[in-house]
Amino acid sequence: MTALCRSLVLSFCFLPGIAQALTVVDQTGHAVTLPAAPRRIVSLVPGVTEILFAIGAQDALVGVTDFCDYPPEARRKARVGDMLAPNLEILVSLRPDVVVATRSGNREETFDQIKRLGLPVYLVDEPPSIADLLRLVGGLGQLTGRRDAAAAVAAGLERRITAVRQRVAGRPHPRVLYVLWPEPLIVPGRGSLVSELIASAGGESVTADQAQGYPRMSLEAAVGRAPEVIILARHGARTGPAVREQWQRLESLPAIRSGRLYAADGDLLHRYGPRVVDGLELLARLIHPEAFK
Amino acid sequence: MTGGARLAWICGGLFVILSVVALGSLLVGAAPVPPGTVFDLITGRGPGQGTERTVVFAIRLPRIAAAVLAGAALAVAGAGFQGLTRNPLADPSILGVSGGAAFGVVLGQVSGLGQGIVEGLGLTALGFAGALVAGAAVYLIASTAGGLPVHTLLLAGVIVGIFFSAAITVLISIVDTNRLGGVIHWLLGSVAPIPPGALGVFALATAAGLWLVLGQARALNLLALGDEGALELGVDAQRVKRRIFAGAALLTGTVVAFVGPIGFVGLVVPQALRMLLGPDNRVLVPAALLAGGAFLLAADTLARTVVAPAELSVGVLTSFCGAPVFIWLLRSRAGRTSP
Amino acid sequence: MTPLCEFRHVGFAYPVGAHGRPPFEIRDLSFSLVPGEVLGLIGPNAAGKTTVIRLLSRVLDPSRGEIFLAGRQASRLGRAAVARQVAIVPQDVPQGFPYTVEQLVLMGRFPHAPGRFFENREDLEIAREAMAITGVETLAAEPLDRLSGGERQRVVLARALAQRPRLLVLDEPTAHLDLRYQAECVALLRRLHKDDGLGILLVSHDLNLAAEVSDRLLLMAGGAAVSAGTPEDVMQESVLEAVYGCRVVVDKHPATRRPTVNVVWPDGR
User: What CATH number does domain A19-153 carry, 3.40.50.1980, 3.40.1190.20, 3.30.565.10, 3.30.1490.10?
Assistant: First the structure.
């Protein structure tokens, strides 16, 4: 009985493998046709790498970038180089069935070259909203034949997001300035994921009316909005303690007077993977600490 | 030995060197392809498809072709500018001509031109236009009654280069941030495999530029007698200068359009050849073609293997090599006098 | 006999302020030079002697009048055709000239086949012959910047001879030479024009050299011809004093009986 069940289960598992040619629509609206469900995937996007691990597709992942460092197991995958100039020879030697790349981070020349080498490319964009992020998770689930796992992951993320929203509901929204990069000052504008996260975390982003995406802004203009909470994104050496000191000196700001200058891990908020929700929870704790006592 | 025979020997020798470097470059790379397989593939006996075939024919070979063409074009352009200005420090990057070409090409990229055949022509044309504008600007700024004094020439080149860098920065800041990394990467110069159609455009444009410069090589020698001295010998000095300038600008614009601005090749290669072979442009220009190709190919091969799987920008390597040569030339007698 | 070159009422004016030069013009200049003749062009600075050379070689074109070369209008001839007939011997090569003696002399062959990429055997022969005549064939492989002033002067002369011109124009040929080389130069010029029927236009500050070597003299001042004729006709004290603005005594050379000019140096009062 057990053997029969096992073989039945196994044969169901093989079904995706003997499926017909697979056509999916990638996140930019292009159709990508593959001869079969991909068994070897190269990810040129750290966020996508995280999602693939989260939905259990890591066995199909054969190559990642130097920046794909989460989860720790990702570091054991073969490296193809950085995002701007991945090493084409290594990429080709990994014999991928599909390469996942992004228009926000990889160069167009790169994925053109990959297509010319005969490798299908699944393009993603930086999701401008939480809903788009969840769609990305679903799309990758469809690509890897792990739709159910993806749906489960998405559902789990949605639950946590709703929970955060409920926690901070009804509270006054402090003015929040989020600093993606200190110099030149880059902030989240309209239609950016971080703006939506701040709103969901119960804050009012002072830069939500700026241009689409993550535009530059003059320091004066930002400071003139008198933020009550300032969050500095940490991306590595350049955004460390020295930057905090610079902002501490702006003593006239409400945020500085009340000591509400915080740092947040940039990887959580900008990689558009499942950890974005970790980032959301972090933002909520920083903006409404009293709701989490 | 007549001039023709000597040229044939020199070109033969340089061609051998170029072939050796090309073969070496074909054999090394980040993907492990055994030498035996490489030879099989080249001689047609290798596997009909597969990773190794892709690596050798779709990645390495086009990249080698691009590097050779770029190096050849830059070296010939350098020789042309040096003959025109009668100064061995003249090189497309130092004279700001590369900067002008880069501006033209970035303008094209930002407007969406890519690497199709027609688009490649468009980028080349924009690069050529930018190179012409920059070269004309340098000439107008630096020329005095007595010719082109070297210090004014260098200053003018620096200024024009800075101007176009600033213009490129303005363009970049208008372009969305996502493209930023890509443009900056390109500005350091990157030799990458180019599709065959575009490669054809590259080769054709290089040939056209070479024809313009080489055709005037003998007259260029006579320009060393001064404009009047050349006129007295029957050389139409202005026509010769215009042609060489156009040829050198076309070569510079083409290289920048396909691999980005790469500096110092036009300085180092002709100078080394001049020390070995003498100042006769009829020998120097063809030799620069072959030696420049070998030089940049060697540099690019180094750039893609020395810190594999990461890659250095080839412009970084040529700058490391070229800056000391520039300084040495500037300090020595050669920097003060005619090439 | 058709003159090798003929100026007929030639006028020329530099564009005002061109290249920092003061305004200058040549007015109604007419003269001719026949084969086998040595014509000495003399006159003070800014008399127009250099401009005449430039007009002859078509570096400049006259604004009035016509220049004829061997009976044909120079303005109708291509540059290379002009260079095949007229060879200019400059005072020197530009600073930092990088080529060797032989390479420079071979440049003189350019006008005969401008389309040819490399010189052929005949060109090499002619070049060697020219170097032999001027006595520099042992220096063939030397770069010019390693030679002395006198050697360089002979090399540029060799280049002009390699052009196989009908008219040789010498621009201050003895300017930087010491006496020995000056004498050698004179001997060489005499041999050349006797042997080959070459016409020579000699432009020189050195009045005595010009008087010695020339068959005829043309004295210019302020862009116009002041006097023309045999050395005896032209070298008159009154004329020279008016043109040069200083007192002179004209005498006869003790050995050759040609006129010589001696300046009466002022005593400072």
Answer: 3.40.50.1980
Which of C80, C95, C117 shows the shortest C-beta gap to B234?
C80
Q: Is C113 on the interface with B (CB under 8 A)?
A: no
Q: How far apart are CA C81 and CA C53, in angstroms?
A: 16
pTM of the model: 0.85
CA B122 to chain centre: 19
Q: Does the distance separating the beta carbons of C59 and B232 come in below 8 Å?
A: yes
Summarised one tens digit per residue, pLDDT across range C194-207 is 767 789 999 988 88
Compute the distance between CA of residue A272 and CA of residue A47 in angstroms, rounded to an integer: 5
Helices first, then strands: H and E counts in chain B: 15, 0
Q: What angle do CA A267, A268, A272 make, to 5 degrees?
A: 90
Res B101: pLDDT: 92
Neighbouring C-alpha atoms within 13 Å toward the C-beta of A272:
24
Residue C13 phi, psi dihedral angles, 5° rounding: -135, 130
Which range has the worst mean pLDDT, A172-181, B61-70, B80-89, B249-258? B80-89
Question: DSSP per residue over B14-49, as a string?
Answer: HHHHHHHHHHHHHH-SSS---HHHHHHHHTT-S-SS
Other C-beta atoms closer than 10 Å to the C-beta of C174 total 22
Place of tokens 């012409």: B132
- For C21, name the nearest residue in chain B, comparing CA atoms only: B145
Please report the pLDDT score of residue C21 as a whole number.
62
Whether the per-residue pLDDT at A3 is higher than 60: the answer is: no
185-214 of C, contacting B, C-beta below 8 A: none
Relative to beta strand C86-89, strand C167-171 is parallel
